[in-house]
Amino acid sequence: MKCSDTSPEEDAGSSRVIAVVFCALLLDLLGFTLILPLLPSILDHYGQTEDAVYQSLQSLVDWFRDTVQAPTETKYNTVLFGGLIGSLFSLLQFLSSPLTGAASDYYGRRPLMMLTTVGLMSSYALWALSRSFSVFLLSRVVGGICKGNVSLCTAIVADLSCPKARTRGMAMIGVAFSMGFTVGPLIGAYFARRSSLEEVFYLGPAVLALLFSTADLIFIFIMLPETLRKDTKGSSVSSGFQETRDLLSPVALFRFSAVTRREDSPSKQSMENLRALGLVYFSYLFLFSGLEFTLSFLTHQRFQFTSMDQGKMFFFIGITMAVIQGGYARRIKPGHQIRTIRLAIMSLIPAFILVGLAWNLTLLYTGLFLYSFAAAVVVPCLSAQVSEYGLASQKGTVMGILRSLGALARALGPILASSVYWLAGSEVCFVVSSAFFILPLALLRRQRWSKEE
């Protein structure tokens, strides 16, 4: 896949950068996802202690559970508690992602990649050493603040001059996500099961996460080139840090104010399109993450899924996404992203209706296949489309803001969706929520896409 306006050397350089980004992000995600299958057991483990922080958070979860009339069953309580931890992590990402992106526009992508990786290593070290819930929670806070590799990887891909290479790169980032979230949890569960120390059964996965992160740091140091051009490096220091409120205020983030501050900022029409894409990204992930969170409630209630059944379901989703991203999404041509995003979001409406009303596994997995198709396509295509906007010295800021909006959506979506689920029932939650996917579709149709079909 070559660009007509680039040399063979530039094409080869782009392919090398994409390969390095893929491997670095995969190492990062393998370490990050090891904890996912262990989180319920870890929370149950700390629930047997007298940790004051745990008891305070448990009181908050109990209040929320009583408010939305969720059952007092242990499994639901654990999922809600895990959702609270996940929302905290996402809120920290919401705060840190635009700052990390802006910093990379000034100092370069490579130094920030290494710095955030060192931060993640610190969080995994805290996890390995934790013998109280307070220390464990601190490890998640450090991880949430330092988890900047994803937005930095998208910024690195956005630095590529070839639109086709950017599309391919965003798709390969999606493949790394699918592989990491499919393989990582299996490895984490395996090493936890092999542990001979019952009280610290998570020690093996924690140490392995630290090793993955260390390997990632070494790999980045040796293999990752600096993609931010020297003629733009350092030019955005005033736009990145002089008005910090533009990188922290939700209103300013939705307006991409940090991008418009400079005199040579994109045109009015380009900024309108960029803001529309930000709203599409937020509304899509707000609805999607909420229904994704309640999926485990539905399958446990309606089909009596065990933890193993849940694992098999998410393995099916991960493998399907990886195949679609590797075989289809990375071949989408520039100029066809908006059309593809529309198609994928439209497929979510029948997907969640089928899941919400499914009375047998055939209907459930049919809906999950459509769900997997949309999950494999929407974020990579939106990221590739957004990467077209902003100056070369603003790509980190643009992609960091986009990542921040997604983190805010993932923090808020599950709270609303689980409330509707327990107050109105699974059918109402999934069917009504699916209808709201019309909103991002309307936003896409309202804009004039000069670079599209």
UniProtKB/TrEMBL annotation:
Domain of life of the native organism: Eukaryota
Membrane topology summary: Multi-pass membrane protein
Pfam families: MFS_1
Main subcellular localisation: membrane
Gene Ontology MF term list: transmembrane transporter activity
Protein name: Major facilitator superfamily domain-containing protein 10
Gene Ontology terms: cellular component: brush border membrane; nuclear inner membrane
Its biological purpose: Probable organic anion transporter which may serve as a transporter for some non-steroidal anti-inflammatory drugs (NSAIDs) as well as other organic anions across the luminal membranes of renal proximal tubules at the final excretion step into the urine.
Keyword Iron-sulfur (UniProt): no
Keyword Magnesium: no
Biological process, per Gene Ontology: apoptotic process
